[in-house]
């Protein structure tokens, strides 16, 4: 058994010898519970700051700052202050434009139908398009939600195709 500093020195020596950069992506941090979130940030800050190594941490800043701030008995501001100590270069991505989400969502639906061999009549396409525009599009606030919707269709359509109205199933 060796101590953490010795192990870290060995890893750094290997990284220097390799003369390569390492990029580590950690996504969906906001899906962890507050203790796990805190552990990820502690790991990155205290134990894993290796030479030639960059971390890209993807998360919802508001959600994570609230959870981390709560760990310190503080509020959102305490969480933001904590994150600022860890994150050296914050990159805030803008929200997807509703028109882009609509096109993305409809493309996913089209791909699912094509992959499953489900063919809609022109009237069914119009009916779904109208329902999508009025009721589903407003719920697609992120690409993740559009992908979840497509995954639900990909799962449910093969099971129920021929037993129910396809458009009703897609809307439900």
How would you portray this structure in words?
Helix content is 63%, strand content 6%. With 172 residues, it is mostly helical. It has a two-stranded parallel ribbon. Strand 1, helix 2 and strand 2 form a beta-alpha-beta unit. 12% of the residues are buried.
Structure, briefly:
With 172 residues, the chain is mainly alpha-helical.
Mean pLDDT: 87
Number of strands: 2
Strand content: 5-15%
Give a short account of the largest sheet.
Answer: 2 strands, parallel
Q: How are the secondary structure elements laid out?
A:
Layout: H1 4-18, E1 22-26, H2 34-47, E2 53-57, H3 61-71, H4 76-86, H5 98-116, H6 122-136, H7 143-160, H8 166-171
Parallel strand pairs: 1-2
Helix pairs in contact: 2-3, 3-4, 5-7
Question: Which key phrases capture this entry?
Answer:
172 residues, mainly alpha, 8 helices, 6% strand, elongated
């Amino acid at each position: 058994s060796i101590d953490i500093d010795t192990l870290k020195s060995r890893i750094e020596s290997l990284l220097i010898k390799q003369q390569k950069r390492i990029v580590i992506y950690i996504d969906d941090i906001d899906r962890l519970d507050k203790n796990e979130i805190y552990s990820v940030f502690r790991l990155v800050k205290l134990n894993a700051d290796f030479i030639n190594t960059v971390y890209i941490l993807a998360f919802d800043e508001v959600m994570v700052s609230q959870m981390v701030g709560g760990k310190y008995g503080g509020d959102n501001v305490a969480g933001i202050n904590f994150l600022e100590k860890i994150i050296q270069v914050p990159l805030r991505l803008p929200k997807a434009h509703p028109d882009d989400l609509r096109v993305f969502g409809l493309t996913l639906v089209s791909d699912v139908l094509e992959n499953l061999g489900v063919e809609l009549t022109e009237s069914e396409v119009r009916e779904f398009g109208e329902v999508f525009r009025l009721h589903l599009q407003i719920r697609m606030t992120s690409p993740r939600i559009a992908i979840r919707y497509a995954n639900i269709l990909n799962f449910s359509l093969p099971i129920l195709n021929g037993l129910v109205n396809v458009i009703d199933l897609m809307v439900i």
